[in-house]
Design brief:
single chain; alpha/beta; three-stranded antiparallel beta sheet; 15 strands; 44% helix; globular
Amino acid sequence: MITLDCETFCMPNSLDGLQFPLNETTQKPSTSHTGKAIISEALSIVDHKVSQQSLNEKNWRKRYPAYFKALVEHGIRSPNHAITIAKQGLHKAHHSFVFYRDGVKYLLKDVMNIANITPLHTVKLHGESNEAPTWYVPYHGKNLQGQALLDQIEAWETRGIIEPSHAQALRLVNQHPEWFDLSDRTTVLFGAASEAGPLTWLAKWKANIVAVDLPNPKVWEKILNTIQKGNATLIAPSLEIVSESIHTSELKNKLGVNLLTQLPEVAQWLTQFSQSLDLAAIAYLDGEKHVRVSMAMDTIMSIVSEKKPDSSLMFMCTPTDVYAIPKEVVEASHEKFIHRSNVQKWLTQGVKTLSLQHFFQTNGQQLIRSNNGKDYGIADCLVIEQGPNYALAKRIQQWRATLAHHQGQRVSINIAPSTTTHSVTKNPLLKAAFNGAELFDVEAFRPETTNAIMAALWIHDLRNDASAANPETPLDHPLELMMEGANHGGLWRVAYVARTALPFAALYGFATDKLPLEKLSSLFKK
């Protein structure tokens, strides 16, 4: 997803809920000031020099990718470094963000100490279907099952769209249809109505779904309709006692909470559940609010996990980030560059020259030796236009996943492909880039395809005790948790630094709406 950040944002007349801290000089919230401080603290023990450089960076808006890459590079060099970075970054974040209630300011880490936490009420609704759980993958107008699905999984793997571990996970869930009966699981969806989330599938799999989303009638109408059509049970929060006889047309007006302002209420409510919980951080908001909602989810997950250590965590990563990757993926990227077609070599070199080396920078990544004896590479797929806020929000999630898994908690964190959700395609530039991404063997998925695949990956991670999500499964490096099960849509294996190729993909995408360029596409890939 691409969102545009702003350096500072207007202060509301009365501060309420989770907020960025005020800059001591300007007395205004500054996302850049806070982001730099968190990244600097994360790097402080592993590289003091770069830590100070990040803190003093004058052009954070354009230069932030270098520091996020440094986080990964230092994390690779030592498994202990990866844990240290996660601890330091999260510690600084929780000691930086603040929470306001009734004019009183609290550090986020002390949010449960506020004086007036109002208990939430619980509403339940059962789906009306008696159908057995089923799974298929909607793709290009077809619902793929059986051999057709296996053939498509193999095709994606062969093209480098998905990693072998992702393909294997999909094959395994296909072999175990009994895994999809989730009547024994209680899943908590922060941002339940998210377009890229698993709600639609969980509603078909008999899950007990704790839906947390904004008190918005349109949002809850979507959630309630989805539940009614399925065989699952909805568990939803309400600020008031709701009659069991209330009609669903009225129920949509009674449900919901705001994670940013009612964080302690949600945390307290969830800790009172008797059953173990599978907590999924899938809420998304635009701009600086994405960092704040990520911090809200992280805080609630931490509180619930402390009270209920048998809880599991789930995150979906964006492919447009920077990751440690296996050695064989680096080698595949190099091979792709070497074996480019003559037309592609000629065209990309010409564009690169005309753009003063800004386009088509070679993905000439070098392997980095870890002190565990293995070599890893770095997939730098950050898109500058997404902004440092988006990168920070997703990094917080990676840090929590890394640390929780290290501490013995089951953590499902998988890279989801670029997906043509409304929040993405409303940006004309990004929509065009997706349309042209096929030039570089990159595939953008439709939401219904991503939903089916990523929901299945979550089930795999919950049911398969041999999965990387299980803390008892040995990993040679903590960062391998994000390598396993990756569906990056091909971005890890592109022959160029992704952000230097996507602008040309966007130009091609714009042009395909006006001109018949199929021949160029075929020549480019030959």
